[in-house]
Amino acid sequence: MRIATSAGRAVLLVGEHADHAVDLAEVSDGRFGPDPEAVYEQWQAFVQWGAQATLPEGAPVEVSRLGPPVPAPRQIFGIGLNYRDHAQEAGLDIPTELLVFTKFPSCLTGPDAQVRLPSDRVDWEVELVVVIGREALAVSPEQAWEHVAGLTIGQDLSERRVQFAVKPPQFSLGKSYPGFGPTGPAVVTADELPDKNALAIGCTIDGEVMQDGTTADFIFDVAAVVSGLSQVVRLLPGDLIFTGTPAGVGSVRQPRRYLAPGETIVSTIKGLGSITTRLV
């Protein structure tokens, strides 16, 4: 299934190209939705219903009406240096433990968004985002996927001047300006993906390829990330985990390269679709 938010209501994207939508509250006779967050609070029941549901053809998706598929998570986690090629390009050692920060929920925006740049030092980071479907505490890596609702695309936009103004860095503040968490277009359940552990991931700016990687290059894969976080934190339904970015960010290029007004980022993950972020 592909769960999205349209005009503030939970919808399912359907059709061969996931370009039509059906209102979840309507097709479930009010059992689920219209609140997108409520789907994750009832995840097990929702999955059981979805396995039996016969869905109509739906109406064409209006991309401009899509919002973040999980608009108000209680917790958003970020994982730093989680791709080998990104650690290497930054000249840093491969981590042996999860490097964790947070993004504040007020930074979230949708898959077709306009984001104001607060400075001339904003960087891009395309990321696979995990959405929690069942509460998790002290789960093993073998159990971890049982607690995952699905996956979506994210851009971890980062204001590098704020982030690195002090030591240790202010990761959470530098990554939480309004609009600095584009996500979408939908939360895709793992059964929709041929190989959930090896997804092509990348982004372009005005058509120029900036990042081109695969989640097979994770240092800590999805199961390890969910398990590791759950050893300390109670993960709640609807929580988001930004799992890290592959090589190609602007701050380690020679010369350094940052985002400018008028540019457009297209972030893509195979099987999940793409999101578009226009900078102003």
From TrEMBL:
Q: Which SUPFAM superfamilies match?
A: FAH (SSF56529)
What GO terms describe the biological role, i.e. biological process, of this protein? Answer: small molecule metabolic process
Q: What is the protein's given name?
A: Fumarylacetoacetate hydrolase family protein
The record's listing under InterPro entries reads: FAH, Fumarylacetoacetase-like_C, Fumarylacetoacetase_C_sf
> GO molecular-function annotation terms?
hydrolase activity; metal ion binding
* Keyword line: Hydrolase, Metal-binding
- Superkingdom as given in the UniProt entry: Bacteria
What is the organism of origin for this protein?
Kineosphaera limosa NBRC 100340
Membership in a protein family: Belongs to the FAH family.
| UniProt xrefs under PANTHER family | FUMARYLACETOACETATE HYDROLASE DOMAIN-CONTAINING PROTEIN 2A (PTHR42796:SF4), FUMARYLACETOACETATE HYDROLASE DOMAIN-CONTAINING PROTEIN 2A-RELATED (PTHR42796)
**Transmembrane helix is among the record's keywords:** no
Fumarylacetoacetase-like C-terminal domain location: 76-279
